[in-house]
Amino acid sequence: MRPPERTRQELDPVGAFASRAITIGSALVAFAFAAAMVVSYIDWIKNPALALMGLLSLGVASIIVTSATDPYRGPFHRGPHGWVVALSILAGAFITAGAWDTDALFALGWVGPASLGLYSIGMAAYRPVREIVAYGALASVFMGFTSMLQAQATPLPNVPDAAIVGIHLLPLLALNFSAAAFTHSIIQSIERMRAEARAAERLSAEQETGVARSVQQDRVTILNREVVPFFTEVLGGREITPDVREHARSIADAIRAVMVAEVDRTWLENLVDHLRARARRHGEAPDGARVVFDDDNVANLMTYDQRTALRALLVAIFDLTDDRPQNLEIVIARVGERCQGFVAVDIDMVDPLVKSKFGPYLAVMRVVFRRLRAEHLQSVLTVRFSYDQR
Amino acid sequence: MTMGLPAHVAPRAMSLALSRAAHGMSLAVLCCGLVVALGFAAAYPDRVLWPALLALAVMFPMVWFVQRHRTLGAGLAYLAIGAGATYVHTITYALAVPHVLDDLTLWLAPPKIVLVLVAAAGVGLGRAVVWLLAGYVVAEVSASVALVLAGVPYVFDLLTLALLLEAIGVCLLAFLSVRGAVRAHPRLQHAAREELLDDLRSRMEVRAAALMHDTILSHLAAIASSSGAELDDRQKEQIDRDLQILSGQEWINSASDATATADSLDRASPLRDAIAQVRDEGLEVTGTGDFGSVLRLSPEQAQALGLAAKQCLVNVIKHSGVMTAEVAVYASDDEVSVMIIDAGRGFSEASVGSDRLGLRASVQSRIESVGGLVQVWSTPGAGTSVLIQFPVGEAAQVPPQTGPSRLVSGPLPTITLGDRGPGDAGPAS
Question: Among B21, B34, B217, whose Cβ lies nearest the Cβ of A255?
Fold first, then answer.
């Protein structure tokens, strides 16, 4: 399992998912800003092909930011972050090279730094603060150098080179540092809340006693049905005849059968039964179709966090389909050293709505499972995940 | 499990984070502004540009102050000082290098941007937008007055306006994201609570199932295979006692009660009791190893170990065809292991019916529910060894497992005496 990172997507997956509008908005604005700048200075640009390649690089960077933060995909790692930074540096270089030795150079020198600054805002929820700052500083060095070359190649009248470099780097440094400060503050708030959350996760003594009473009552009910009357007779001096022996055997078999069934059930089967029973309580006929396929009982190998995340997703599926999910199927099996899970259900909604409704739960699952892939094709939502055998 | 910020904390945390972001941006902008001003000062050494540098320098502690004191007063002071600094910065440029402001006024933007990003007191989108607009108005008025007084024509500053719009957009989306995130929290928190309850119930059911197996099923099996017309008194007493225990609630609370009251010496008792009980039934048990290491287990683990070991030894009596067994205890820094070995007829996993519960309910589930691990090595004709392991010390921090794993693992790996540690020679009791 990959080591956890001090990022918002790991510590606050729901919050990171919910802030994806900022991510998409930043990626779109970055590209739109670059396109608008290139179009407005197109008459000055000597080499439109280079400017076009610059725009293409920013287009790819925007696609990376948008797709890698998609709730159906895996976590946003350092790799895509690095690619976005590299493409932005490249785009800035291409666009300024296309307008080299022209009056448009100063204005177009802003495109790379401003775009990368906006991407930093969009990626802040997904990467650690140190990485955001480090990549921003690295990009500043490259872009500052390019800006210095521009200032020397096409100096602005009466304006020193340092002023041009300072103004060119302003959007990158300002937005990058702002993104880092925002993420740092949110992560600090989350970490402060952790101790409180851990305390809330513990059950109270009353709740524990309630569960104990319930378990004990279940056992007493089983015993009172046949066992207690039988033993009362035996203890009362009843002769042990072959019939009595046979009766003892049959009671033992019945109890053993119940116990075996209990041992063979997983928390997941119990949960699905419970959720399906809600529809039954609404007066509907129970759906007899098998939902959970887990012949090896490997659902029990999930950690507490993994169970919680999957439970929340399933509850959301039942809630959002009025307790009647169509063609729900959950398959879990051992594959080599790991376990793999698969959830499929018909969700008759448009894709953006599915992402909006189930995105928070997928975001949490993505953090707690080793690997997660989700897709919504032809009205079927499928979620694939894997986890280690504890 | 971290699910993020709860609903009652999220808006305040978001306001704080946005304010930190604004002030972080302010510091970066001030640094860039200083580079620009120093560049001009170096390029025009005969002009008076130091007041612009001073105006920017004054804004550093101002940003720090409003970050530390997010109050209305601090915000108003920030606007007042910022207005003065912006005025000084603008008029310095306008008087010293008026020709560079003919086409571009970007050089004047840094203090204005810092003013826009006041981000002072208050929580919520409305407050944030009000502070942004107030900062923008104060910044533009200060700069305009300075330019007019210096006789430099006013040129609209697109950069500061763009920043204002960007900041409002980010605030809007950030607060909308808080609402979105908060909507999913109740279901996640409910799931987490349900999971805790389920885990507790499952551990209690494991205990109940194991007890039921050790008592009721055992008595029923004894009656089913008995040959006499009546049960003997000892058996009757045992049935009566077990029924009373199962009908009461003590068995469920016994382990936790034990945690509170048990003296550490008692932790070795369940294992010793188990050995003593099967000896009463005629099984010859040899104890080897360091039985004192059982003291390192928790009372709950010690109790589970005693009951599981008894079930293993009862299995030797019932199924192995021999009446001798060995119980070996050995320990390392992070683990206590107990091995129950017999040289009986052994078994293969395939030969054990799926309805047999002894190893699963009374040994495996019981031990796993208190954080231990069970492994069984058995080969038909070559005896059976059951290894029960408990992590102790730091290793014991790992949460208990309740999942199934492959129980019977084929032939036993060779264990030499050297593996057992120096103190492994003492008797069981």
Answer: B217
Mutate which of A9, A14, A387 to disrupt the B interface (most B C-beta within 10 Å)?
A14
- CA B403, CA B392: separation in Å to the nearest integer? 20
Model pTM score:
0.73
The H-or-E segment that residue B23 falls in is helix B10-43
Confidence of residue A190 (pLDDT cuts 50, 70, 90): confident
Cβ-Cβ contacts under 8 Å, B33 against chain A: 166
Are A121 and B170 within 8 A, CB to CB?
Answer: yes
What fold, for A267-388? Heat Shock Protein 90 (3.30.565)
Give the C-alpha separation, B167 to B21, whole Å: 10
CA A188 to chain centroid, in Å, comes to 20
pLDDT for B12-23, tens place per residue? 888 888 889 988
Amino acid at A98: G
Closest Cα in chain B to A14: B181
The answer to whether A17 contacts B213, with C-beta atoms less than 8 Å apart, is no
Of B100, B113, B229, the CB nearest to A240: B229
Report H helices in B213-331. 218-224, 233-247, 250-261, 269-280, 299-315
Per-residue pLDDT reduced to its tens digit, B200-210: 887 777 777 77
**Neighbour-count burial for A176-209, b at 16+ CB within 10 Å, e otherwise:** bbbbbbbbbbbbebbeebeeebeeeeeeeeeebe
Cα separation values, B310 from B235, B290, B303, B337, B384, Å = 17, 18, 11, 15, 15
In three-state secondary structure terms, B398 is coil
From B343's Cα to the closest Cα of chain A, the distance in A is 28
Q: What is the pLDDT of residue B301?
A: 85
C-alpha distance from B12 to closest chain A C-alpha (Å): 10
Distance CA B360, CA B352 (A): 11
